[in-house]
Each structure stands twice: as C-alpha cells, then as structure tokens.
Amino acid sequence: MKNNRSPIGVFDSGVGGLTVLRALMRRLPHERFVYVGDTARVPYGTKSPEAVKRFSLEIARFLKKRRVKAVVVACNTVSAVALPELRRFLPVPVMGVLEPGATAAARATRTGRVGVIGTSATVRSRAYEREIRRLNPALRVFSRPCPLFVPLVEEGWLTHPVTRRVAQLYLSPILAKRVDALVLGCTHYPLLKTVLKSVARNVSLIDSAEETAKSVKRVLERKDLLARSGRGSGVFFSSDDPDKFMALGHRFLGGKLRRVRRIHLDGV
Ligand code: DGL
Questions:
Q1: How far is the CA of 43 from the centre of ligand 1 (A)?
Q2: Are 236 and 37 in contact (CB under 8 A)?
Q3: Packing angle, helices 127-135 and 98-108, rounded to 10
Q4: Does residue 99 contact residue 70 with C-beta atoms inside 8 Å?
Q5: Residue of 181, 91, 192, 77 lying closest to 139 (CA atoms)
Q6: Does any ligand 1 atom lie closer than 6 A to the CB of residue 96?
Q7: Identical fold at 8-97+211-262 and 98-208?
Q8: How far is Cα 135 from Cα 154, in angstroms, rounded to an integer?
C-alpha cells in the first residue's frame, strides 16, 4: 500500500487556481488537498520567467515539507515557464495544466487551426504552441495575450458589457484566422465562458481545469496513488491577507472557504 492518504499539493499565483482545485475536488472526491495561493506576489503573468521560477520553487519547498504525494501546478504561467525546474526539485509527480489543455485542443480541432489565450508570460513562452505542435506538427497555433481578463474577473465583471467588448477586441485577430478550438490558457478564463462563447461562436472552448483534473486522476491511478475511500478535504494557505483570499476565493471555488491560513514564503 502506498501513501494514498497523503495530501495533493495544488498551487497558483493567487485565487485563480481554485478553478482547477474545484475540478479536482469534483473528480477526486476522496483526496485531501493543500492549496497555496501566492496572493502577495500575484500576478505572475506580467513577471519574468526567472521571478516566476523563484517564486514557484519557494512554494514547492513549502509543499515538500507538508509531505504531499503529488503536486498540481494550477497556474498556466508557472506550467509554461517553470515545470522542468519543479520536476527536478520535487521527488513526487508534478502535473501542470498545459499538457492536458494542449492535448484536448489537438484532439478537438477539425480545421487544424487552434487558438490559445493566456497571460503575457504564458504567450511569450510559446509553451502551448510547442506542446500542441509536438502532438501534431500539422496544426497551426495562433496565440494572443489577454492581460485585462485577470483584473476583470477579479472585479467580478464576468458578463459586464466592458468585458464583452474587451473580449471582442482580444479575440478578433484570432477568430480571423478561422480557429475552431480555443485554449483558455489561464486560471481565470473559465469564469468568462459565457462571454467567450458569445464572442467565439462555433469554436470549442478548451477548459484546461477540467482537462487537468481528468489527467491527474489517470496519473494517480497509474502510479497507485489514488485515494479510493475516506473524506476529501481542502486546506488553504495564502501569502497575503487570508480574509481577502476568502472573500475572492469563493467565486473561483464555487463554494465557501471556511479557513485560510497565512504563510510567509520568502526563504521557506
Ligand atoms: N494564475 C495565472 C495563470 O493561470 C493568472 C494570474 C497571474 O497572472 O498570476 O496564468
């Protein structure tokens, strides 16, 4: 019997990764999760790869001390720029959101033209593009950073006319390329599905949170690490004001967070 009752670490630059945790909790109801949101340093999407790697390794050090059996990198930006470093550092399986999203997109497209939207750091890294073309070199990928989406979601403007207008402006160059699958390559974007669906009609929206949850389940099964009984749970850590995390977090998790603890990440 392996350490199946050990928790799974999930982390993000802030509260956005709770969309991934929500999908994970739905699909893996017996697991115990430890979630870390680096709200003191969010956003990561505007920072350099070096800074994102350093912050991520600090969080990884914290999760390692909590003896997690696996780590899910819920942040697209971290998945795009820091996965190899995290895999080298952590002695447990490390799964990002990028590979599952890319795989689903490569499978969904009929025209062979895929769109990717994400933070500036994610798009600049070209990690989605590389992964999609590794899966199928015949596919064409058109990417676009959408930096205003994160603050709009955090403001709660999920279906606001301003958000709709911003979405039209961001997506029109990609839609002009006649993509038929669009990867929502950022933790916050699944919350904009209503607006994105109305702007990108007849385009399959790829929710990397859902795809990641499916893929994490498969990996845990394969490695005999899946918890098959017992009550699932979540404990939450935030590097800035826990009350703020709690207030914002419920929108992403789709439920109330009972308790959030403060952590000091610097030099963990
Ligand atoms: N969590 C980030 C991502 O998925 C979005 C917020 C940020 O820029 O830190 O890329």
A1: 6
A2: yes
A3: 50
A4: no
A5: 181
A6: no
A7: yes
A8: 33
Of 74, 65, 69, 54, the closest CA to residue 14 belongs to 74
**Backbone dihedral angles phi then psi of residue 111, each to the nearest 5 degrees:** -85, -10
75 catalytically annotated: yes
Nearest atom within ligand 1 for CA of residue 187: 4
Ligand 1 centroid distance, CA of 187 (Å): 6
Query: Going by CATH, does the domain composed of 8-97+211-262 fall within 3.90.79.10?
Result: no
Measured CA to CA, the distance from residue 96 to residue 18 in angstroms comes to: 14
**Tens digits of per-residue pLDDT, 179-234?**
999 999 999 999 999 999 999 999 999 998 999 999 999 999 999 999 999 999 99
Q: How would DSSP label each residue in 138-184?
A: T-EEEEEE-TTHHHHHHTT-SS-HHHHHHHHHHHHHHHTTT-SEEEE
Active-site residue, selected from the candidate residues 72, 73, 75, 166: 75
Q: Look up tokens 């599905």; give the residue.
A: 193
CATH 3.40.50.1860 fits 98-208, yes or no: yes
Residues 52-76: pLDDT tens digits?
A: 999 999 999 999 999 999 999 999 9
Atom 7 of ligand 1, nearest CA residue: 43
For residue 32, report the distance from its CA to the centre of ligand 1, in Å. Answer: 24
Checking 256-262 for CB contacts under 8 A at 24+ apart, the result is 259/235, 260/236, 261/235, 261/236, 261/237, 262/237, 262/238
Q: Rounded to two decimals, what is the model's pTM?
A: 0.95
Handedness of CA 14, 19, 24, 30 (dihedral sign): positive
Instruction: Indicate the domain borders of the chain.
Output: 8-97+211-262, 98-208
